[in-house]
Amino acid sequence: MNAIILSAIWGIVMMFSGVFVSGKRTIRTIAILGLLLLFLANCLDLGGGFRVHIDVHRMLYFDTFGLLANSVIFGSTLVFVMLSGRDMENVGINLAEYFALIFFVLCGVALVTTFNTLLMLFLGIEIISIPLYILTGSDKRNLKGNEASLKYFLMGAFSTGLMLLGIAFLYGASQNGSLFIDEMAIGKAPISPLFISGLLLLLVSMSFKVSAAPFHFWTPDVYDGAPTVFTSFMATIVKSALFIGFIRLFDEGFGRVHDRWQLFVAIITAATLFIGNLTAVFQQSVKRMLAYSSIAQAGFMLMAILSINGIARDGIILYITAYSAATIGIFAVLIRMKDYTFEGFSGLAKHHPVLAATTTIFLLSLAGIPLTAGFFAKYYMLAAVVSTGKYLWLVIFAVLCAAISVYYYFRLIQAMYFKEGDRQELDEGPGFRILLILLAAVIVVLGIAPHLVTDPVHSLIYLW
Amino acid sequence: MGITQILFWFLSVLALISAILVVVSKNPVHSVLWLILVFFAISGHYILLNAQFLAIVNLIVYAGAIMVLFLFVFMLMNLNADTEPQKNKWLKIAGVIASGSLLLVLVAALKNADMKSRLAEMGGGNIGLIHNLGLALFNDYVIPFEISSVLFLSAMVGVVVIGKKE
């Protein structure tokens, strides 16, 4: 509850700081302070030190899994703002409002990770979506951004409509009109067709929100058209939160009837992996390549939903940590580049060795090379599927797709290290460099010793 | 057949026919007018269920506010047959196939659904009265009610961000 209240309040604080504070630096400092407070408040909630108690009528359920995911997401938002906060100034003049919208998104994130009724899931997803439509179109002079924003809005509204239809079906299917996810599909009563229809519609709309194939068509256009700073935000923080909501819904709500939907999720996973990886190979722009790579990574995260078990729950936390850290890092470098094509990165290693080295570590992590966090993240996902005892074909297919992904990630590394390029003036202060090195260090440490994260996660989820 | 049943069938037929006319009308202004009729028919259903507040809110918000906005937008955009872009034939076929498949799946799934045991109470039940609705809203559903304010606030901030001149 701490996080929900604090993020909403800090959103209002940011809104008013736009009126009363003139310096952009001050506004950024207020935002960073707010994120720090949010992170600490959530950790206090997690540790049990201080909790705001409100009778929520069981509509929210603050378990360790959700709160831990919150901590990871707020932490990555903090890193994101510290790395790329300055680039937000270049998008438009409404800096304080952008931060206000980001805080409102975080309020939605805190709802999506801790919901216990479909009502709260719907509210949370809408609170996340509406500010995102705005942030996508925040660069008003950019026609591509406007197009992306409108496209995202129309498609997102349509998928929300499908979700509402599904919720209505589930409400009709429940015994006495309940929207609580832990009361669905309970008891000995045979599963009604209404329930299955609602489940499928929810599966479709959630797949849309996390950009799983074949509902991914909006992703490349929106991620490419949006200002790069906000693409970074959408592809990492928001996507992680939606995955936590997805797994929560399908584990606690539909977990008891998992034999009914597992095959569908397996097919969606395979399609997502295939389309994401294969299309990324042909991209010329690094930004668009990263958009497709985020679809491909979503394919791996979908494996956690396919195999709802303990390993999947540990693994998804590790996965969102590794994925968010690496992607935020790459985007932070990309934002400062003048040329977004692969050629634009040529010769980066010679002139900006620190940026090139850290970007390489991030890319290796995304590709899942050992000694980086991405390797163990992928390992956990595959192990989760293996432990279900079925869907071995999916594991093999996923490993093949990961092999394809190495090609396009290494293409960027090759451009940076083995191609000649002109020196370009990049805006890199010492603080930026130190943060990137720290982020890369986190990825390497997690890659060498993943138990640093998974053990506490495991003990928190199961023993505490 | 009592008066309630006659009204129910009348309103249902009215709602369905107007809904079909919304889709098939060539002129967008006609579509909007048919849509208003759909809302009136649905409000009639709410009254049959003794949900007076919902009926009035449906009329005020949808038929009143949103439809007027629709009409304004149509008139400002000056839509007519000449300005309508040529639609791709394949796109139309793809749309028909896609939505037809969804219809088929839903009908196939729901044709066996047993809904007879869950018929709504006609005329009885008083959960739809303002007094009971208010009690439910501010007791059991107070958390979603308060949190939806964040949603509206973020939408308002967004409108300012998009609409403000740079």
Radius of gyration of chain A, taken over Cα atoms and rounded to an integer in Å = 21 Å
Query: CATH superfamily name of the largest domain in chain B?
Result: NADH-ubiquinone/plastoquinone oxidoreductase chain 6, subunit NuoJ
Order of helices and strands of chain B: HHHHHH
Level-2 CATH architecture of the largest domain in chain B: Up-down Bundle
Helical coverage of chain A, percent range: over 70%
Biggest beta sheet summary of chain A: none
Would you kindly provide a written description of the structure presented here, covering whatever features stand out?
- The complex is a heterodimer of chains A (464) and B (166).
- Chain A is an all-alpha fold and 464 residues long.
- Chain A has one domain.
- Helices cover 76% and strands 0% of the residues of chain A.
- Chain A has 18 helices and no strands.
- In chain A, 59% of the residues are buried.
- Chain B has 166 residues and is an all-alpha fold.
- The model of chain B has no long low-confidence stretch (mean pLDDT 84).
- At the A-B interface, helix 1, helix 4, helix 5 and helix 7 of A face helix 4 and helix 6 of B.
Give a topology summary.
The complex is a heterodimer of chains A (464) and B (166).
Chain A: H1 2-20, H2 24-47, H3 64-84, H4 95-114, H5 118-136, H6 143-173, H7 193-209, H8 218-225, H9 228-253, H10 258-281, H11 286-306, H12 310-336, H13 348-351, H14 353-367, H15 373-388, H16 392-418, H17 430-448, H18 451-463
Helix pairs in contact in A: 1-2, 1-4, 2-3, 2-4, 3-4, 3-9, 3-12, 4-5, 4-9, 5-6, 5-9, 6-7, 6-8, 7-10, 8-9, 8-11, 9-11, 9-12, 10-11, 10-16, 11-12, 11-15, 11-16, 12-14, 12-15, 12-17, 12-18, 14-16, 14-17, 15-17
Chain B: H1 3-24, H2 28-48, H3 52-77, H4 89-110, H5 130-139, H6 142-163
Helix pairs in contact in B: 1-2, 2-3
Short description:
Chain A has 464 residues and is an all-alpha fold.
Question: Which key terms come to mind for this protein?
Answer:
heterodimer, A: 464 residues, mainly alpha, globular, B: 166 residues, Four Helix Bundle (Hemerythrin (Met), subunit A), 0% strand
